[in-house]
Amino acid sequence: DAGVIQSPRHEVTEMGQEVTLRCKPISGHNSLFWYRQTMMRGLELLIYFNNNVPIDDSGMPEDRFSAKMPNASFSTLKIQPSEPRDSAVYFCASSLMVVEKPEKLFFGSGTQLSVL
Amino acid sequence: QKEVEQDPGPLSVPEGAIVSLNCTYSNSAFQYFMWYRQYSRKGPELLMYTYSSGNKEDGRFTAQVDKSSKYISLFIRDSQPSDSATYLCAMSASGAAGNKLTFGGGTRVLVKP
């Protein structure tokens, strides 16, 4: 298995531009998570999906952020418009969730986003 | 105050030494406790997973949970240079909130040959 695949690995953009991050979870996993990691705030959960349905988006910082999961094998995180404070590493993770307890998360290698 | 506190380090030790890491937390609802290891430019990977209080051992790694003190620890015996990484603790409550992990900020560990 190739693991969780994220693209792009690096993204450099200018303030005000739209940014789209992509994630392919591990086949067979039914839950997908988007995290953001910064030096100041550490690893923060932005949103998670179960069976392609958004369950909790309370971590999404503001309306500029949106996430979709059109099918079990693909998810996007979009920032529009982007701002310099959005610069961070964005991780996608997936898991096979059976009951309401944390299951092992498998993380992708992340997307390093720099907004100039 | 953060819900989970973790010393950022760096923690530098000689090869073969015992590495001792810990986290404190404030939310008494946390029932599940995990340690993740993160190498540079990689995503975190799960090392240890424990439920409620007690100890768990896996090879060179030992995880301890003291819920009465809201304190968890990870010990790495016979440390190797390949153990150099950032170690993040993570915690979760049970029930519907169990799907959400709260991470510590991570402790950077350097094991010198």
Plain-language structure description:
The complex is a heterodimer of chains A (116) and B (113). With 116 residues, chain A is mostly beta strands. Helix content of chain A is 0%, strand content 53%. Chain A is built from no helices and 11 strands. In chain A, a hairpin with a 3-residue loop joins strand 4 and strand 5. The mean pLDDT of chain A is 93. In chain B, the strands form 2 sheets. In chain B, strands 2, 4, 5, 9, 10 and 11 form a 6-stranded mixed sheet that branches. In chain B, strands 1-3-8-7-6 form a 5-stranded antiparallel sheet, with no helix packed on it. In chain B, 37% of the residues are buried. The N and C termini of chain B lie far apart (37 Å). By secondary structure, chain B is mainly β.
Summed up, the helix count of chain A is 0
How does the helix and strand content of chain A classify structurally? mainly beta
Average pLDDT over all residues of chain A: 93
- Low-pLDDT parts of chain B are none
Key phrases:
heterodimer, A: mainly beta, 4-stranded antiparallel β-sheet, 11 strands, B: 113 residues, 5-stranded antiparallel β-sheet, 54% strand
Topology:
The complex is a heterodimer of chains A (116) and B (113).
Chain A: E1 5-7, E2 10-13, E3 19-24, E4 31-38, E5 42-50, E6 53-56, E7 65-71, E8 74-79, E9 88-95, E10 106-107, E11 111-115
Parallel strand pairs in A: 2-11
Antiparallel strand pairs in A: 1-3, 3-8, 4-5, 4-9, 5-6, 7-8, 9-10, 9-11
Chain B: E1 4-6, E2 11-14, E3 19-25, E4 32-38, E5 45-51, E6 54-58, E7 61-66, E8 71-76, E9 85-92, E10 102-103, E11 107-112
Parallel strand pairs in B: 2-11
Antiparallel strand pairs in B: 1-3, 3-8, 4-5, 4-9, 6-7, 7-8, 9-10, 9-11
